[in-house]
Amino acid sequence: MNQGEDIIVKCPNPEHTKNVKQVCFDESCKEQRLYCHECIKIGMHITHLQHQEELPSLFEHISTIEKESDDLINTINKQMDLIQNDFFLLIGGIRTKYQISKQLPNLNSQQINSFLTQSIHFKQFQLIIENLLQQFIKEFQDQIKKLQNDLNLFALDYYQISKPYIEKSEELYKIGYKLYWNDDKYDEAIKIFDQALNFNPKHQLSLFTKAESLRNLGQYNEAIIWADKALQADPKHRRSLFTKAESLRKLGQYNEAIFGLIKLCKQIQSNSLRQLKKFKEAMEVIEQSLIINPNHFNSLRIKGQCLHDQKQYLQALIFYDKALEIDSNHKWTKKRKNECLEAIQTQ
């Protein structure tokens, strides 16, 4: 779609009848940045004409910003993967150093003596590392919240998606999915998914299947970008996480790929153990996941569910609340929290 030709923008001034023709890109400008010929006649933007462009420049600017924001998101994800990998190495080091029962027959007396000397001080080490991690995580969360506030990241919702657009998006997705699944026509499928996303940019299945099509075409960097978009729309979507991990593996980023698969496996494993009523084992798996990422929504939610199923309602509420801090509109978690509150009242 050629947006410069297809989109008509009304002048923001309600008294003007003309459509927008010019756009102001001056950083210090305080006036409406979109304006019509009537605005020009009354002298708007006259002091910085060098920063005025025709309307099609707006769509070029939007496209550029989208690309740059994707690059930024990719950079942030890579940095987070590095942090998570460091956590994984820390956990592995603790396990190797302090869990030696299987290696005991192969250790000499000096090695056993060294272990004993250091393990006697384990409680002190445990307190130090727990306090440091809590401090670092709190500082990190505070900085993230500050960034969100400073950048006004959640101040605007630019559009409401109409029902016809949602239906059209779903219709196009089904056409694209047939090309992807039945015919292996990935390039053609991607074009259809792009059309679907023009109508509904949050259509999760179009985002995921575009990512998967890109992976099948060997375009792994692009596949990671679109898998991340799919995970923003639905953080629980396991196939999107797998697509990202497999793309990372193909790019030789093995640590990041392994970490992604570990998160996926732990999520599946903990939920399966809970359903089998093996609560102790499930809680151990969840704790491992939360050590890696203390703000992992599904791990918090499932830990709350484990505690709930064991009738530990007060403790369950703590983790439901933590999950709702991440996704305040998650209906399942809100419902389970209300069930806990009702159970406490009837005790």
How would you sum up this structure, described in words?
The chain has 347 residues and is mostly helical. It has 3 domains: 3-60, no CATH class; 120-156; 163-346, Alpha Horseshoe (Serine Threonine Protein Phosphatase 5, Tetratricopeptide repeat). The chain is 70% helix and 2% strand. The chain is built from 15 helices and 3 strands. A 3-stranded antiparallel sheet has the order 2-1-3. α11 (254-275) packs parallel to α13. The radius of gyration is 26 Å and the shape is elongated. The mean pLDDT is 82.
Q: TL;DR?
A:
It comes from Paramecium octaurelia. With 347 residues, the chain is an all-alpha fold.
Ranges where pLDDT stays below 50 over 5 or more residues in a row are none
Q: Looking at CATH, which topology of the largest domain would you report?
A: Serine Threonine Protein Phosphatase 5, Tetratricopeptide repeat
Q: What is the CATH architecture term of the largest domain?
A: Alpha Horseshoe
The share of residues in extended strands comes to under 5%
Give the helices and strands as they follow along the chain.
HEEHEHHHHHHHHHHHHH
What overall geometry do the principal axes of the alpha carbons give? elongated
N-to-C CA distance: 61 Å
What number is the mean pLDDT? 82
Largest sheet: 3 strands, antiparallel
C-alpha-based Rg, rounded: 26 Å
Number of domains: 3
Q: Count of helical segments?
A: 15
What structural class do the secondary elements suggest? mainly alpha
Number of strands: 3
Strand order of the largest sheet: 2-1-3
CATH class label of the largest domain: Mainly Alpha
Please bin the fraction of helical residues: over 70%
CATH superfamily of the largest domain: Tetratricopeptide repeat domain
